[in-house]
Design goal:
disordered N terminus, five-stranded parallel sheet, alpha+beta, disordered C terminus
Length: 630
């Protein structure tokens, strides 16, 4: 509405080639200046008028239809094309009222007849024209906002469209619904993912709305105004746009909530469908079946339609009539659930023993019974298989214990006898044995010792994981030093610990075995005149990573896996006495503790054996190590 204030002048473009008519119109507008102020600019041709309309902002055009370069209705059409947003009031002569009405049909707001009456009618007509323009603009903006909500609702109804597509399309729809859509950008943020219009850019002028799901903030809608706001200009955002933003945010939260609930329901349905139990939903009063999974009607031999026409007393022999069912309901009202065994009747007349659980649940104002029936023979058969499996494992363990006993006693005893006998022969017949005979006796003793060591290796390997010692806090600095002192270290070989070792709670003897096997191998196979062995440890990806490196002969890559297998060695046993069990034992110990072991090497350039141990709650903080060691 045009109010009776002079706070905002009305900019008028007067298009008329008649000087007298122009003066008459100006005079009429000037006389009304006490209520409304008019800023009037003039043009005498249509061409001049269109240039003005292209370069200036006018509130209204007063247009004469008889111009030097245009006349009649065509003049209205051309002026309207030059700026469709500016309302046009046609100035007509006394005999041109029909033309004025035709001009309204072609887009003019109104017409006024030139003459004395123009003084009284012109201001009123201008006011009405501007009011109609504002009403039309408001209606168009309202339609844009309604269209946004309508198209969002249409999106929500499409079951195959994803939430991601909905959020992206919502950003575009919101932008198009704003009055200044060409200088407005939108971003929707949901669960940390951004959905933006193609012109997105942050600015100081913005609006926000929160997307709420399950009572918690799940995202936001952000709208930014990209135009320049001059001093004292009103807020570029309308109150109606603020309301639209809140409405869209509420609808997005609602659809996200529904989609999440639908996904959860579908997941629950899939779980029920895949269950091996018979699951029923019953109404409490008569025990009629309302729903059930496929397993239920398939195991009973009924079609889905047949079972929906039945009640629980038709299949459960322990509930022969309605009164029996009502007794169960009364018990359920005072207990969490009922578990009972009974016979379920199939369609072919046979029965099966089942364990059935009944539970009373409420959904809104309605009560329902959930019944889950499990075939007892199947369950018992599963339990029997599990029991049999445990028995087999125990039998295997018993056989392993017996095998270990045989190795430690029955097999070692003859070896000890052979060695003793060879010692007697060597001593008693020393003067009768020549050099070749003595060499054969020594070779026999070596073979007996090798067999004895092999049996020890097998025994140690079999005890890993089966015999456990108590875990204690172990300072690896002290443990490694102890292992080094135990080794028969030649003078040409040095072992260096390069950095501080951790303190860990573990099985001390097992970890000592790992270091003993790795270090003894490095010493045994050293082929350099100055052997160097280095030990280090680093913390890496949640593990302690230990490394034992040497400058020995190295290992070809094709043997990296083989060396960790039982009884595998890379050199003849007569050259380097070895059982081929040490690395196998080390591998089993490390893997038992949740780590892994591997080698990195190059033939002729030494080797580095790595193994890892997980950093768990058993690891001791570095600041506590001094206290522990003290």
């Amino acid at each position: 509405m045009i109010t009776n204030t002079k706070t905002k002048a009305i900019n008028v473009l007067l298009v008329d080639d008649d000087k007298v008519d122009r003066q008459m119109v100006k005079l009429a507008l000037a006389k009304s200046s006490q209520s409304v102020e008019f800023n009037v600019e003039t043009a005498q041709t249509l061409r001049e008028a269109t240039e003005h309309l292209a370069s200036n902002n006018y509130d209204i055009v007063l247009l004469d239809l008889g111009l030097p370069d245009s006349s009649g209705i065509e003049t209205v059409q051309k002026a309207h094309t030059a700026n469709p947003n500016v309302p046009i009031v046609v100035l007509t002569g006394l005999a041109d009222e029909e033309m004025g009405l035709e001009a309204i049909k072609q887009g003019a707001e109104d017409y006024v007849t030139k003459g004395k009456s123009v003084e009284f009618a012109l201001v009123r007509i201008i006011r009405y024209a501007l009011e109609r323009k504002q009403i039309r603009r408001n209606l168009q903006e309202h339609i844009k906002r309604l269209n946004c909500l309508y198209r969002l609702s249409h999106l929500f109804e499409q079951p195959k469209i994803s939430l991601e597509q909905i959020f992206q399309e919502s950003a575009n729809l919101i932008r198009n619904a704003y009055r200044n859509s060409d200088i407005t950008c939108v971003r929707v943020i949901f669960n940390g993912i951004h959905y933006k219009t193609d012109n997105f850019k942050k600015s100081e002028l913005s609006q926000y709305a929160q997307i709420i799901v399950h009572g918690e903030k799940a995202g936001t809608i952000e709208v930014y105004y990209l135009g320049e706001r001059k001093e004292n200009e009103p807020n570029p955002f309308l109150e109606e746009e603020r309301d639209l933003l809140d409405a869209v945010a509420e609808r997005l939260g609602s659809i996200a909530d529904r989609r999440k609930t639908a996904d959860e329901i579908q997941l629950f349905r899939n779980l029920i469908k895949q269950s091996n139990d018979c699951i029923f939903v019953l109404e409490p009063k008569w025990g009629r079946f309302l729903d059930f999974n496929d397993r239920a009607h398939e195991s009973l031999g009924y079609t889905r339609k047949e079972l929906l026409d039945m009640s629980i007393k038709d299949i459960d022999e322990s509930i022969p009539d309605d009164s029996s069912w009502q007794e169960q309901i009364e018990v359920l009202k005072h207990k969490v659930n009922i578990i009972k065994e009974g016979l379920l009747k199939r369609k072919d007349g046979t029965t099966s023993l089942a364990e059935t659980s009944l539970k009373l649940v409420s959904q809104g104002t309605e009560d329902y019974i959930i019944a889950v029936a499990r075939n007892i023979p199947e369950r018992k058969q599963s339990e029997q298989k599990q029991t049999k499996l445990l028995e087999d494992v125990e039998n295997a363990n018993q056989e392993l214990r017996e095998f270990t006993y045989i190795i430690s006693h029955d097999l070692k005893a003859p070896l000890r006898g052979i060695k003793t006998l060879v010692d007697w022969i060597t001593t008693d017949y020393a003067d009768k044995l020549d050099d070749e005979g003595k060499e054969q006796m020594n070779l026999l003793i070596n073979r007996v010792d090798r067999m004895h060591n092999l049996l020890d290796g097998i025994l140690q390997y079999s005890r890993i994981g089966r015999v456990q010692e108590q875990k204690v806090v172990v300072n690896f600095n002290e443990l490694v030093s102890e292992v080094i002192e135990m080794l028969p270290l030649p003078e040409n070989i040095t072992i260096t610990v390069e950095n501080e070792m951790p303190t860990i709670k573990c099985e001390r003897t097992r970890i000592m075995q790992v270091f003993q096997n790795l270090l003894s191998n490095a010493v045994k196979y050293m082929d350099k005149p100055q052997g160097k062995i280095k030990i280090r440890c680093v913390e890496e990806n949640g593990f302690w990573k230990f490394g034992v490196s040497d400058n020995g002969p190295g290992i070809e890559e094709k043997y990296f896996e083989r060396i960790f297998k039982m009884f595998q060695t890379l050199s003849p046993r007569d050259e380097h006495e070895s059982t081929g069990v040490g690395l196998t034992i080390a591998k089993k110990i490390v893997e038992l503790f949740g780590g892994r072991i591997w080698v990195e090497s190059e033939a002729g350039n030494g080797s580095t054996f790595f193994f890892t141990l997980p950093i768990t709650h058993n690891a001791i903080k570095k600041q506590d190590q001094l206290l522990i060691s003290s």
